[in-house]
Every structure is written in structure tokens, then in C-alpha cells.
Design brief:
The structure is a single chain. The chain is an all-alpha fold and 150 residues long. It is built from four helices and no strands. The longest helix is centred in the middle third of the chain and has 29 residues, at 71-99.
Length: 150
């Protein structure tokens, strides 16, 4: 007695391509690599913010302003932002591909995910690179030590 396994259901089918870039494979690889890098970046971020120095009680505007004036931490935070948003967007794209059965619905949802990821990456990158650690009119006790009180 032999039994056969039916082909799995798929919400949509595509004709197999023999040439070109396999975007699904590269998306899968990106998820694995970015996940490992994100673990290092996030735990490094948490360690520096919560464990080093005075710990969580030292977290205030001056602490963040001091970190965002250092090119190392600017790159660290932007890398964490970019990797996390692209990682999350790719995961959401995978969910949409798995569960949205209508082609138009898939297109709309994936376009919305792409728009959200691009907007958040642009805004987050602008915040990090245009951050002013010494805003005019701020109380001197809240400013970092390198700001001149005026």
C-alpha cells in the first residue's frame, strides 16, 4: 500500500524561474545574518545604557546627548535602526505573502510596509545625524557638560 502526499496549498502560484536573482533566498539569508548582528547591537546598547556607569539612574537628556555627539554611537544607533526596520519589514512581507490571498491585497499591504519602513528609516537617520545636544533655552542642569549655558 502506497500513499502519496498532496502538494501543499499556496495562496498564489508563480511560474518557476530558471534565471535571475532569487530574492527569497537572499531575504532568508538577510534575516539570519541581521538577526545575529541585531542581537550583538541590542545587547551592547542595553549594556552601555543600563549597566555601565551609574546604570539606569543616569539615563537623561544629557546622557543621550553625550552619546549622540560621538560618531561611534551615531553609527551604532543608525546601524541598529536600519537593520531592525529592514528585518521587521522583511518579516512582515513574508507574513503578507503567506496569508494575503488576493494579488491586489498583497500589493497594497507590501507597498504600505515598504512606505512605513522607508519613512521611519529616513526620519530616524535624520534624527541621529541632525541631533542638537545643546538646544537654545534649555535649563543648564539638564544640558550635557560640554554645552555652554547661555
Amino acid at each position: 500500500m502506497t500513499s502519496t502526499i498532496e502538494a501543499p496549498r499556496s495562496p498564489y502560484s508563480r511560474a518557476p524561474r530558471s534565471r535571475g536573482v532569487n530574492w527569497e533566498k537572499w531575504g532568508w539569508i538577510y534575516m539570519r545574518v541581521s538577526g545575529v548582528v541585531l542581537v550583538v547591537l541590542i545587547f551592547g546598547h542595553l549594556f552601555v545604557n543600563l549597566m555601565v556607569g551609574e546604570g539606569v539612574s543616569a539615563l537623561n537628556f544629557a546622557f543621550v546627548a553625550g552619546k549622540l555627539t560621538t560618531p561611534f554611537w551615531m553609527v551604532w544607533d543608525v546601524l541598529m535602526l536600519w537593520l531592525a526596520l529592514i528585518h521587521g519589514g522583511n518579516g512582515m512581507r513574508t507574513l503578507v505573502n503567506d496569508y494575503a490571498t488576493q494579488r491586489l491585497t498583497r500589493g497594497i499591504l507590501k507597498s504600505a510596509i515598504l512606505a512605513a519602513v522607508v519613512i521611519l528609516i529616513v526620519l530616524g537617520t535624520l534624527v541621529v545625524f541632525t541631533f542638537d545636544p545643546c538646544p537654545a533655552g534649555s535649563p543648564a542642569d539638564l544640558l550635557p557638560s560640554f554645552c555652554s549655558a547661555s
